Amino acid sequence: MEQHEISEKIREYIKAASFSSIDNLDDDLLIFKEGILDSMGLISLFSFLEENFSIQITDADLVEENFESIKAITNFVSERQK
Fold it and tell me: Could you say which of 59, 61, 68, 78 has the lowest number of CB atoms within 10 Å?
């Protein structure tokens, strides 16, 4: 799957799962610091990523840098799919 396709799927998921109304979600926006997703949203995001991209998220992956923005999540998923 191409990176832009991964990014769009993640963006649509975050928009649907967010507690705020977001029309334009920038790839570099810090989604947890901005309050777009909370800790429960993060756990749901993990399930979404594992199910939709056929990847496994391990304890070692649970660092902020992997999930802080759409760009970071897209890069993480892309690396896992190789």
Answer: 59
